[in-house]
Design a protein that fits this description.
The chain folds into two domains: 40 residues; 55 residues. It contains three helices and no strands. The longest helix is centred in the N-terminal third of the chain and has 38 residues. The termini are far apart.
């Protein structure tokens, strides 16, 4: 082997090594970008997890509101039926109404601060 052949062989190896280093770099960067998109992108695993939690919370709220709606519909039906005992119960409990000749007594909680009557 001559010196020129050896130089040519080493320069070809160095060129091949540099080219392979460039390929590895591009492959690594591509994998890094794809990993970011897969994990943290708009449709990544993290956002899907966040959206799933939000859906669960909204479903729980919907169930609560449906129960409240059912209770209100039952109240409406009872009031439309003109149930005098029920109407009287609502008037007494919610609005503090009393019949003529009755006295209303309110009991305060111990935690309620007392107002100085001065």
């Amino acid at each position: 082997m001559t010196v020129d052949a050896i130089r040519q062989w080493f320069s070809a190896r160095q060129f091949e090594s540099r080219r392979w280093f460039g390929r590895r770099t591009w492959i690594f960067l591509g994998a890094l970008i794809l990993g970011y998109i897969y994990l943290l992108g708009d449709y990544g695993l993290y956002n899907l997890w966040v959206y799933q939690r939000r859906v669960e919370a909204l479903r729980a709220e919907i169930a609560h509101l449906e129960q409240k709606r059912t209770d209100l519909l039952e109240l409406k039906i009872r009031l439309q039926a003109q149930d005098p005992q029920y109407i009287e119960q609502i008037a007494r409990e919610r609005y503090g109404m009393v019949k003529p000749g009755e006295s209303l007594y309110r009991v305060r909680d111990a935690e309620t601060p007392q107002i100085d009557p001065r």
